[in-house]
């Protein structure tokens, strides 16, 4: 998979921009706050229809403009696709080959991307919400069915929480509607949990392979999925049955609190290095190596699931890694993954890669292509 062309209109500080990407490595070089990250973000938004930096689409639209537009031409196998995303104050529209897509699951996954930014190094030490978002964004790219079930689960969860709040405030007394919402929540929630479990299995396999290599065989990485309810077998009917039982046991507490307290929206991940919880007891180096292994594992996982390598976006992450981890990162991507990298200096990549990069100098939203030295 390859992004061949990117066009931006009214996107953040880019009023009208068109870039071609003939090479496998593209470097956006410049000082901080010049617009480098905006370029990577636009590629991410083109793929995922949402930003990793903000939940407000208005922030993506240029100052005093009514809309922002992102277009991209991608190669998948032997075919080419035109992707387009239009962002307005009223919402967003996505198109594939100029045909509007009504369902999110039919658009997401056309362009698979992996974003690695400095904040991703905190995926190990960060909040459970950060880890759930990581699972949902990555799994949603490669499984339209998962994305559909997750979207439906979140929709029902919102409705159920609203009704629980009404019950807690005595604005409603009839719990029959709550029963209906609970059945729907269990149906979609069980499917979400089962898909996450299979995803974590594959992620653990590829992550441990990389982690072992980076640590010269000294460390073994295990990833545990921590569900908010316990089940003995990975069977959908069993998971849904236990989920329903837990919700029934928690009903009075949920009504009192006005919110759903059990379900995949409360789940988490645990990372073990040599059987020790790296989140609690690991060194900063172990935590960073774990995060790096997890992010790089996505490359092979997505290739395994889709048959195509994803596009990799590295947002100023090289400066956060020591030489050993930089080398392992570059070795993992060289020659097989189209990579876009932002940096304030070329010192991190000089002499560490054999491919010739395209280098774009970015200054105050202006871009100039330079040849590699």
Written description of the protein model:
- The structure is a single chain.
- By secondary structure, the protein is of the alpha/beta class.
- The chain folds into two domains: 1-112 and 308-373, Rossmann fold (3-Layer(aba) Sandwich), CATH 3.40.50; 122-307, Up-down Bundle (Glutathione S-transferase Yfyf (Class Pi), Chain A, domain 2).
- The chain has ten helices and 15 strands.
- The strands form three sheets. Strands 2-1-4-5-6-7 form a six-stranded antiparallel β-sheet, covered by helices on one side. Strands 8-12-13-3-14-15 form a six-stranded mixed β-sheet, sandwiched between helices.
- A hairpin with a 2-residue loop joins strand 4 (67-76) and strand 5.
- The protein is globular.
- The mean pLDDT is 92.
- The RecF protein is involved in DNA metabolism; it is required for DNA replication and normal SOS inducibility. RecF binds preferentially to single-stranded, linear DNA. It also seems to bind ATP.
- Residues 3-350 form the RecF/RecN/SMC N-terminal domain.
- Belongs to the RecF family.
- InterPro entries: DNA-binding_RecF (IPR001238), DNA-binding_RecF_CS (IPR018078), P-loop_NTPase (IPR027417), RecF/RecN/SMC_N (IPR003395), RecF_2 (IPR042174).
- This is DNA replication and repair protein RecF.
């Amino acid at each position: 998979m390859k992004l061949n062309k990117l066009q931006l209109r009214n996107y953040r500080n880019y009023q009208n921009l068109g870039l071609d990407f003939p090479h496998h490595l593209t470097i956006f070089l410049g000082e901080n706050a010049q617009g480098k990250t905006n370029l990577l973000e636009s590629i991410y938004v083109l793929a995922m229809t949402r930003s990793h930096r903000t939940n407000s689409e208005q922030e993506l639209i240029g100052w005093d403009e009514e809309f922002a537009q992102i277009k991209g031409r991608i190669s998948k196998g032997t075919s080419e696709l035109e992707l387009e995303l239009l962002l307005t104050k009223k919402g967003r529209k996505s198109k594939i080959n100029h045909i509007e897509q009504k369902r999110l699951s039919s658009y997401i996954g056309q362009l698979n991307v992996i974003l690695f930014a400095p904040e991703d190094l905190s995926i190990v030490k960060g909040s459970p919400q950060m880890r759930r978002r990581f699972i949902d964004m990555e799994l949603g790219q490669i499984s339209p069915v998962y994305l559909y079930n997750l979207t439906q689960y979140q929709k029902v969860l919102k409705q159920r929480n609203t009704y629980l709040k009404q019950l807690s405030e005595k604005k409603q007394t009839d719990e029959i509607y709550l029963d209906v919402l609970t059945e729907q929540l269990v149906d979609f929630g069980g499917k979400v949990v089962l898909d996450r479990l299979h995803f974590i299995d594959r992620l653990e396999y590829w992550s441990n392979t990389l982690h072992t290599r980076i640590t010269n065989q000294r460390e073994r990485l295990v990833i545990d999925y921590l569900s908010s309810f316990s089940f003995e077998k990975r069977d959908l009917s069993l998971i849904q049955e236990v989920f329903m039982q837990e919700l029934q046991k928690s009903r009075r507490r949920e009504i009192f609190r006005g919110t759903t307290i059990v379900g995949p929206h409360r789940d988490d991940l645990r990372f073990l290095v040599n059987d020790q919880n790296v989140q609690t007891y690991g060194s900063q180096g172990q935590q960073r190596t774990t995060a790096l292994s997890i992010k790089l594992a996505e490359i092979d996982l997505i290739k395994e699931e889709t048959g195509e390598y994803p596009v990799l976006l590295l947002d100023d992450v090289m400066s956060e890694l020591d030489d050993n981890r930089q080398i392992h990162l570059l070795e993992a991507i060289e020659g097989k993954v189209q990579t876009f990298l932002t940096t304030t200096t070329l010192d991190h990549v000089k002499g560490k890669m054999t491919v010739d990069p395209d280098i774009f100098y970015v200054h105050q939203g202006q871009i100039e292509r330079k040849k590699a030295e």
